[in-house]
Each structure stands twice: as C-alpha cells, then as structure tokens.
Amino acid sequence: MDKNEAEALCKASGASGETAGALAELFPKSLEEYTKEDFLDSDKPYEYIYLYKDNKFMQQKLITKMSEQAKKVGVRNFPTLYKAFVAGQKDGSPNDVSNYTDFPAQPLALPCGKWECDFSGVRTLNEYGGVNWACPHPIMPVERLNNIDTGIEKVRIAFRREKGWRTIIVERKTISTTNKITELADYGIAVTSETARNLVNYFYDVEQASGDLIPTRECVTHLGWIDRGEGAEFVPYVEDIVFDGEADYKKRYAAISQKGKFDEWLDFIDRNIRRNPEIIARITFAASLASVLVKPLFCNCFWLHLWGESESAKTVLMMCAASVWGNPTISQYITTFNSTYVGNEKGAAFCGSMPYMLDELQIVDKKDMDALIYMLTEGAGRSRGNKNGGLDLVPHWKNCTISTGEKPINSGRSNGGAVNRVLECECKSKFFEQPRKVASFVQQNYGFFGKLFVANLQKEGVMKHAEQLLEKYTEELTSRKITQKQAQSAALILTADALAVELAFDEETQLTVDEIADFLKTKDEVSANPRAYEYVCEQVASNQMHFIAGDKPIDLWGALDNCGGVYIIKSVFTRICDEGGFNAVPLLSWLNDRGLIERNGKNMTVPKRIGGVLTRCVHLTMSEQEPEEYPEF
Question: Quick check: 491 and 287 in contact, CB under 8 A?
Fold first, then answer.
C-alpha cells in the first residue's frame, strides 16, 4: 500500500501516523502482488478492501480490480469469499455482549451487539461492508416504565444533540414499528423514513442484549392513593415512582412540591384561615384536606362551591387551600373552568385523590353544569371505544372538587341529584384585608402540610380513628334531616378538620356541626319536586288568560276551578315541566302522594271539557302557602 494512501485512510478514521506506517508495510503496493495462496490461505486481500468500508464507491472499484487479480491466479469466486469475510467481521449477533455503547458522557453502558455506538451516532455494516445508519447522533434506551394502573410499559429514551443529553418517555409501540418511530422527529431526534427500520432494529437488539442492565421503574399518570400490594401509598410522596403523563400535567405534577418555610406557613394559616371570622374560610381549608379521605373511607366524591361578589377574595381563599399541597398559582395546581368536558374529566383523573380546584365558574356554559356536576362527583369518566375496536381505559378518581364563581352553581332548574352533591357557600364578606399580600405569601410558602397530613394518615390506627369520627359526624348531621349525601360530605370536612387540629392547630379553631349545618340542605330543599310544583303554579298565575275561555280566540291551556285549583291539559302540563327543566312523571307521583292532584282510577289525570272538547287534564291544587318574608306595602 502506498504510504500516502495509508495516511489518507488513517486521517479519515482518526488513527495515528504510526498506524499509517504499519498499514503501508502490511499490504502490498500493487494488487498484482497477491497470489493464489494469499486469496485462499490468508485474509490480506479481504482486509485491504475492508479498510474502505466507509467509502462505498472506492470499495466497489477495488472489489472489481481484486476480482480480476483473483481470476488471474485461479480464484474465481472472490466476491463470494469477500461477502463471507465481511459477515465474519461484524460485531456478532444481538446476543453478543462483547461490544458496548461508547457514547460521550452516556447515562448507561449497554451491550449493542453488531451496532457501532459512539460520538458520531449508531450504525452497522451491511453485507457488502457498507454502513447502515440508525441515527447520526447518540441515542439509547435508559429506563423501562411500567404503569401500575394500566399495566402498559413505556420506555425512556436518552439522546444527545448539541446541548447535551435529553430524555423523553414514549410508548413501546412507538419504537417498535417503522411507521411510528418517525414521530420521534418531533422531539429533535434525527430519524427519517429511510433510517426508521434501522433505528427500530437497534432499539430491539440493545434491549434484548441488555436484560436487567436497563432499570425498570413503576410509573403513574395521576396523584393520590395507589396500592402496590405493600399497603396504601400516596403519590407524589413515593420516591421510587415517576410520572409519565401528558406534558401539561407534568407541570401540574411538578407543582406538588415544597417551598419556603413550614413554620411561617403554619403561623400564617392559623392567623388568616383558622381564626378567620368567616366560617367559610375554615370549611374551604378543611375540604382541601378532606379530599384525601374520600377513597380510604369509601365515600362519594363531593363538590364545594364558593360564590359571591368579586371583592370577597374567593380565589385567594382557594389559593390558601391549595397551598396545603403545592404551588397555588393559577395554571400551576389550580386550573380554571375554561375547559371542555373531556378536559375536566382528564383534570379530575389526574388529581386522583387530591382536590380538583376550578376557578371562575362564569366562563362555563350553565346549561352543561348539571352534567359536569354528575360526572365529577361520580368519580368516573365516559367509556370510549378506540380505533382497534376495543375500549379505552375509563378514567376514575376519588376526590373533592372546589370551585369559585360569582353565581351559585345550581339553579332552580337543577336536578335534585346535582343539588345534593354540591355544598354551596355564599361569600358575603371579604375574607382578607390585604388579599394581594395573602396570595403573595402562599405562592412563596407551600406544600408542607399536605405531606405531613398524609404521613399521619398512614400511621397505625389513624385511619380507624378517622372512620369513627366520620360515623359520629354523619349520624349527628342526618339527625337534623340533612340528606345523606350532604351529611357525608360535611362529615368528611369535619373529620379532616378534627385530624388537622390534632396534628397542628388549636382546638378552639375546630369546626363544629352547628357551624357547618347552616350551609347544608334538607331533603325537602334538595328535592326537585317542590321547586317544580312552585314553578308550575307560577306559570299558571302568570298566564291566567290561557285558562279563561272568552269571545276572543286564544290558546287554551286548561280551566280554573272554583276552589283554588286548576285543570291543566296533560300535554300542556308536560310542556311546562320540560321548559322548566323538570320531569313531569316523578312530579305527578310526588303531587299525588301529597293529595295535590285528583286521580281517576290508575290515571294521574281526570276528564274535563276544555273549550267544549273533552280531554284529559291534571287537576292541580294551587299552593296556598304565603311567603314568610315578603314586605307588605
């Protein structure tokens, strides 16, 4: 080999000048010097051509010339022999662990079999000695992540570009198929449709060869209680579990952290919340803690809504309650109502056991509010099909929703179930003299008490004690004719407040049954039927011309009787109920039980001539109750 040629080869590969001298002495200066014995008994002709494996054009020319020389000396199958030589020069099968990745500052050193892995990227040799690139920069799997809820495994990929190593978490199917792996390009990984198959094969080979060298960790996509067979644990207060959810939730997951000084936060909350003259402040703080009791005490999800004028500092109060767990800044832990139905479903599922906090009710469509209340307090999302013909995993949660707004969350048309699931507190007074300073403080000091509260719940006997407190408060509240759901929600708040007092606060600041009972609803207040009856009576009173037949043609709805009652055509009665958002069937049953309608056998209606035509009507006794607080003029 010519010395200049040897130096050019060494320079291209980064070898030293001494290596160039050795190459020049090792190989003949002319191809005509190779003999039949060289082709059959040594590797020198093949090694010479293999030196040009990275220069396909030069290598192919040498193969042609070397084939001619081999034929001259009686060897006619040189291309076949060279192909076998190249196969032997490869680094072996994927199970050969003698070759390891050699990336700069790599997170792990993994066996890579036939793949050459160094600062220039990942590549291997093809059967002709050419280079097949998988990726032009360092890339490797560094961690397997098993989701404890779904059982689905993901992979953490590390890759190095100009600014050092970065990592991403992807689904296993993404790195297992050529049509999916190109999605990694969105993260800055240099993969194309041409190199996709090679990159898939590289990941497969490295994973198969590495075995347990790639660490496996468990992961979650939500906060709160988990059960791994070793007793209940609480995320994120578990060190060996990582989060692998969507990008937006990673920010909110990171918000559950600690900052500032715990003793200063404790003193601040004691002065501004625990001793606040407004009972709603203590209720909101305790509801935030009560959220983590919903699942272990097998209770229903519930909703606390704060409403009133914008000057009452409701949002700041919510921030104080959020500072129990983490960064209370809006868009960090607290979110807003400015979200779709699916967005709220995902948000609640992410919170898991921690309170789902929503600010500014007025930006949501009130017509959809009942459906949202039912969904969030049921603790489960919708069942949805996927493109493979199966069903996606139904999201679920067990927590409390805390919201704010300028108006009540329920209306006169709300179903009884929606009314029953929400504790509404009207904020008539200003909670803080300087709301801005309160908000500033809790954004600088947060996250300590929630971790302490959960750690206390995990101590032996504490959860049993909490269960006893819950039963005691529930019994006291139901004895006051409070509905079961309202009583249970309030009892959870009282239980959490009692545990907080035992843990860190003065007993004189503890909530009592009498204090919270004023915000709860009785069975009659929750039922939609009394409100529906009142609505129907109002419609009759405001549309009396439709019940009096006269000379002028008019749309008749029925007829008034002489005893303070009214006959309403059955279809008109149903229409009035529908327009008011009520169901006519349960209303008729409720009216019948109280003797407020006349029946004809099994029918809830009676025959009556309206405008000379016999038709079936609801004979309703109008309400004779006088409002107690109407002023007299």
Answer: no
* Domain match, 476 and 561 both: no
Evaluate whether residue 239 is within a structural domain: no
- Residue 498, pLDDT above cutoff 90: yes
How far is Cα 374 from Cα 394, in angstroms, rounded to an integer?
16
**Is 240 within a domain?**
no
Handedness of CA 269, 271, 275, 278 (dihedral sign): negative
Kindly report the three-state secondary structure assignment for every residue of 466-535.
HHHHHHHHHHHHHCCCECHHHHHHHHHHHHHHHHHHHHCCCHHHCCCHHHHHCCCCEHHHHCHHHHHHHH
Q: What is the CATH number of the domain that holds 593?
A: 1.10.10
One domain, residues 500 and 549: no
* Under 8 Å between Cβ of 371 and 364: no
Distance, CA of 586 to CA of 569 (rounded, Å): 17
Comparing CA positions, the residue from 399, 412, 398 lying closest to residue 357 is: 399
- The span from the first CA to the last CA of the chain, in angstroms, equals 120
Q: What is the pTM of this model?
A: 0.72
- The reply to whether 386 falls in a domain is no
The residue among 42, 48, 46, 44 whose CA lies nearest residue 9 is 48
Q: Within 10 Å of residue 378's Cβ, how many Cβ atoms?
A: 13
Same domain as 536, residue 562? yes
Q: Are 20 and 9 in contact (CB under 8 A)?
A: yes
pLDDT tens-digit series, residues 416-446: 677 888 999 999 889 999 999 999 999 999 9
Token pair recorded at residue 375: 């969904």
Write the pLDDT tens digit of every residue in 163-219.
789 999 999 999 999 999 999 999 999 999 999 999 999 999 999 988 888 999 999
Could you tell me if residue 444 is inside a domain?
yes
**Domain interval for residue 212:** 116-219
Q: Give yes or no for a contact between 411 and 366, defined as CB atoms under 8 angstroms apart.
A: yes
340 and 454 fall within a common domain = yes
352/312 same-domain check: yes
Nearest residue to 227 via CA among 128, 307, 148: 148
